[in-house]
């Protein structure tokens, strides 16, 4: 391997820069040229990238976002777009490709691997934590800390006014953020896509389950089957007319900010590991962690199914809220 290209794609996640830094430094350590492609697959189609040097990754470990930029490329779904991307990789004499992102990012790499036979490695980077084959994805821990900071603040005002708050967090297909934040933030309840939401039961629990509390916080994953936080508030309101209900959508602040220690370490380990696996002649793998052990699985398996949170956490939450 003489030249390894890398890109970030899909929703950015805090810690992506730490992964980029680890890939670049590991490549340079082995006298491999790291080549950064800008704005994900869109930049690949448009032929935008450059050789990366040590100084390009100086002081980036603490930065949120991605210094390479990201995109969700519709053009890459078309074979004409991919032909241009492949021509670019050939022109630049790229021997291997590392992609950092979620499901869609891995799907793109799998297609390239099949159509061009280029060795590829995938690093899970998404705040949603919904990638099969790893316990944790880069960005999840930082996003959770951001959510918890917000939930703690909402608790202050909710308690002052005896209010019920529906706090919407990201996670269109998975309830990891909502569930973990519910546990860590001491929320009264959580609504996630993995569990059917029962509005009547929810209203009943708010009225009778949390009696005497100064505030109630319900974490809502954006992908919940009953809709967004505001929709759910609207459905509960007629059943709880005397309650003071509010909602808050945390939105994209969850994606930004300086990565946590956990994310910096995870990203550094995975970035280094992806390069080492490529150097061993392996390809088509998604790297990850199982406990503290580095693992890998076929990328095609990683995209076949979504990871789901451990529902024992839901039971735990219920136990903690039972009077
Ligand atoms: O995939 C990560 C994610 O943050 C999801 O949780 C969210 O639904 C989505 O990206 C938002 O995407 P965009 O920034 O493109 O609107």
Question: What would the principal axes of the Cα set say about the shape?
Answer: elongated
| Small ligands present | 6-O-phosphono-beta-D-fructofuranose
- Going by helix content, strand content and strand pairing, the class is alpha/beta
* Helix coverage percent: 40-55%
Write the H/E string, N to C. EHEHEHEHEHEHEHEHEHEEHH
Which radius of gyration do the C-alpha atoms yield?
Answer: 22 Å
Strand content: 15-25%
CATH-defined topology of the largest domain: Rossmann fold
List the helices and strands and how they pair.
Blueprint (H helix, E strand, L loop, with lengths): L2 E6 L7 H14 L3 E5 L2 H6 L3 E3 L27 H13 L4 E6 L1 H14 L3 E5 L15 H22 L2 E6 L6 H10 L3 E3 L7 H11 L6 E6 L7 H8 L8 E5 L11 H19 L5 E6 L2 E6 H6 L7 H10 L2
Helix pairs in contact: 1-9, 5-6, 6-11
The structure holds 6-O-phosphono-beta-D-fructofuranose.
């Amino acid at each position: 391997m003489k030249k390894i290209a890398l890109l970030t794609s899909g929703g950015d996640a805090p810690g992506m820069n730490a992964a980029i830094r680890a890939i670049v430094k590991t490549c340079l350590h082995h006298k491999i040229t790291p080549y950064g492609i800008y704005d994900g697959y869109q930049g690949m189609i448009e032929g935008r990238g450059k050789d990366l040097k040590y100084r390009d990754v100086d002081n980036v470990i603490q930065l949120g976002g991605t210094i390479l930029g990201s995109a969700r490329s519709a053009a890459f779904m078309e074979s004409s777009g991919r032909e241009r991307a492949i021509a670019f990789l050939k022109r630049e004499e790229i021997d291997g490709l590392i992609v950092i992102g979620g499901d869609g990012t891995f799907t793109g790499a799998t297609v390239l691997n099949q159509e061009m036979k280029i060795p590829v490695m995938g690093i899970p980077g998404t705040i949603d934590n919904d990638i099969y084959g790893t316990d944790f994805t880069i960005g999840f821990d930082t996003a959770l800390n951001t959510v918890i900071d917000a939930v703690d603040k909402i608790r202050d005002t909710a308690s002052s006014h005896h209010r019920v708050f529906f706090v919407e967090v990201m996670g269109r297909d998975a309830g990891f953020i909502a569930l973990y934040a519910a546990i860590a933030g001491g929320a009264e309840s959580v609504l996630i896509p993995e569990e059917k939401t029962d509005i009547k039961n929810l209203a009943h629990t708010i009225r009778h389950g949390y009696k005497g509390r100064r505030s109630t916080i319900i974490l809502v994953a954006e992908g919940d089957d009953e809709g967004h936080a505001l929709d759910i508030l609207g459905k509960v309101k007629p059943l709880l007319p005397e309650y003071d209900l509010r909602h808050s959508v945390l939105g994209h602040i969850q994606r930004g900010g300086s990565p946590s220690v956990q994310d910096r370490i995870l990203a550094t380990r995975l970035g280094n590991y992806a390069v080492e696996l490529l150097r061993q002649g392996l390809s088509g793998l998604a790297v990850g962690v199982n406990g503290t052990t580095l693992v890998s699985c076929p990328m095609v398996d990683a995209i076949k199914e979504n990871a789901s949170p451990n529902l024992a956490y839901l039971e735990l939450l219920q136990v903690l809220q039972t009077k």
